[in-house]
Protein 1
Amino acid sequence: MFVSSGPRVGRELLALTLLLSAPSACAGKETETLETEAGATDRWCDLLPREANTAFERVDMESDWFEVYEVEDGVFALTEPNQFQETISYLILGTERAVLFDTGLGMTSIRAVVDHLTRLPVVVLNSHTHYDHVGGNHEFDTVLTVDTPYSRSNQRGQPHSEVAGEVAEESFCEGPPKGLDTELFHTRPWTTSGTVVDGDSLDLGGRLLEVLHIPGHTPDSLALLDRQGGLLWTGDSYYDATIWLYVPETDLDAYEHSIARLSALVPSVRRLLPAHNTISADPAHLSEAARAIRQIRNGSVQGVERSGKRVVFRFENFSILTSRPLLDGKRGIQSDGGSGLSTWR
Ligand SMILES: [Zn+2]
């Protein structure tokens, strides 16, 4: 059986300035932006291709959009560096089937890239259902999700009005992908073919992936663990940049718990594979993130106030961008879904 059940319980810089004055697109995950001596600010584009990624073998691909790297044997990172989110989806191969962990921005076909890389049957699983991780879900027949009201709402897709800033001129380094109508761009609806819960295992043939339900960033956040290979896919719960924990659907209690759970895995994990910017991160950073969120919440570190009631806290390898209402213990409505772009009013 492919899915076996578990117990049913259950961005980097030498930055000198923070540029998140508006909740719109251009500063992106990289809120910390290099300020030159002349005072001009460089964009993420100037950091491309990121050294942390070019350390891996680039796969030759006929795509004007996706840049694909082989991170490990049978593990491909499908990166979208030319849009500021720098979203990363992962194709993970076994001998019998493959898992596609996230389907990207949905601005051009990810299916074409996947078909180039494998002939195995592909099962889609999402690290969470923010718009920038489910964009290509509609291209696949088999999509497994965590069954939460939040995920169900997001299956409707996101209208153009919600994601218009994501296709604004300044959101791209070299313009949109060929064929994308930026006036109409929206996230397409998708359907699920099954659900997963915490503790499930996905048997790909020669590779077993454990599903960890790690709510916090969103109610439906997942991590994947290849215990034998020492690999941990962290989605948006950890990456080496500014971690977004400010939207109303974020739950800081849950995040603190989930990140502590992930950091307990650090001794047995060789590599983190995050969903933004860089395709590999040091597992030790997870422990730093666990400590950071505790310090933020107990008031032992100071943040800097930003627009949209947001507050940013800077640490050595990452920053955490949260919001005043969440720090004050408020909870947003989770059942309405969310694109990942909304701020508190
Ligand atoms: Zn997200």
Protein 2
Amino acid sequence: MKRRTLIIGGTGTIGQSLIGLMQKGGEDFVVLARSESKAKPLRDSGLEVIIGELGNWPSIEKHLDGIDTIFLLTNPAPEQVALQNGLIDLAEVKSVRKIVKISALGAKVSSPIHLADWHGRIEEYLKASSLDYVILQPHSFMQNMLMSLPMIKQQSAFYQSLGDSKIPLVDTRDIAKASYQAIVTDDYNNSTYVITGGEPVSYDDMANALSKATGKNIKYIRIPVDAHRIGMKEAGVPSWLADDLANMNAALQKSAKHEASGDFELLTQARQVTIDDFAQDYADIFR
Ligand SMILES: NC(=O)c1ccc[n+]([C@@H]2O[C@H](COP(=O)([O-])OP(=O)(O)OC[C@H]3O[C@@H](n4cnc5c(N)ncnc54)[C@H](OP(=O)(O)O)[C@@H]3O)[C@@H](O)[C@H]2O)c1
């Protein structure tokens, strides 16, 4: 079958970059949008869009004829296991051949981190299916800095609970590049890849990169993990997510070294986005 790809999550952060790469590469693909308002800008840029939502299975099923590969991403939420496993079931019935799934670093059934457990359950389900798969497990995104945007604009500071630890933060545009390769070749099928940035960096490094790019003096303010947990909950972050993010930071601080995996290079042979690139590209937003 000629490769025709359905992009699920194409209106999100990674998905939007992936769509650009698919267009540039002349790929035959269609994007799932959950509403007409989300579909319109995509259609206006010349893309083929279908309206549907995981969980509303008839809205998906009717569009799966002729789909060879699915890129699968939904936002982190308790229902993600039911949504993604349901899609895997439907894909098998409708003769889809392959799924490229965005998971997360540390995905593992029964992990005390909810997100890792949920992604782990989906990974296991996908591996046990009859489908070909590629699983990409990204490390923390550079773009998570956008969650601190109001604070950076108001106070030229952001609060985090990672101490002095260095982690290989990854730019979502690089995750899109790795996803593209996983879609357009079968060389990486039936394997799992850890997608990190090119080198471990601290939040002080990120603050320095943002300061240089914006011309402001942006500070990383270290807070204890429990203060971070309480602060996120008070700011309206769902309780399970605040716990997950705080517990992840605690775990990252405890383990000694977080090196780059090399899997991005393996898949793409491309140069990675650095924190300086990220800071330059987003400088107007953070200024
Ligand atoms: N942030 C991190 O540091 C990090 C690290 C590792 C892994 N991850 C993983 O990366 C993924 C998030 O990536 P992202 O930031 O690019 O996502 P995102 O911007 O939050 O976008 C989520 C996408 O999923 C779509 N979606 C949600 N529910 C859907 C449903 N029921 N049916 C169809 N589409 C649905 C959304 O559509 P709408 O536009 O309509 O909402 C949107 O396109 C999560 O799986 C997360 O666990 C994140």
